[in-house]
Prior knowledge:
Blueprint: H1 2-19, E1 28-32, H2 36-50, E2 55-59, E3 64-70, E4 77-88, E5 94-102, H3 107-125
Antiparallel strand pairs: 1-5, 2-3, 3-4, 4-5
Helix pairs in contact: 2-3
Amino acid sequence: MxxxxxxxxIVIGSTLASLAPSPALAKSERALDYxxxxxxxxxxxxxxxxxxxxxxxxxxxNGYILFxxxxxxxxxxxxxxLELVQTKDPQGFEQIKLKxxxxxxxxxxxxxxxxxxxxxxxxxxxxxxxxxxxxxKKRPAKPKKKPGRSRPKG
Length: 154
């Protein structure tokens, strides 16, 4: 008789635990073909001036900006970080990879933020510079030995 009453609280407890909201741990990324300098200055202006978000820390040399994102719902101030990483695409051209994390927010909020930053870059900086087609490097031709000019053995 005791066993059948034991299952009720277990089922109810596990159901309630699965319905509890968990913090969003999304991390959105985007690669852009602009220079580091262009992306850095545009990102700082967008966060500070356009959006008015408080910047808690920034380091241009290490390529990160920490700021406070105004959340909706129960969490009103969400810690956020934007990383700028210099990388190369598969063809070897330089590009900037953006990594954005906004705590307690779904990934679509991060993607929307990155979309806005890319639109701002295009409107202020123009389209990204075209990628130059790389020509294979020519190796210098080896000098040919002239016949009849051999060193005497001595």
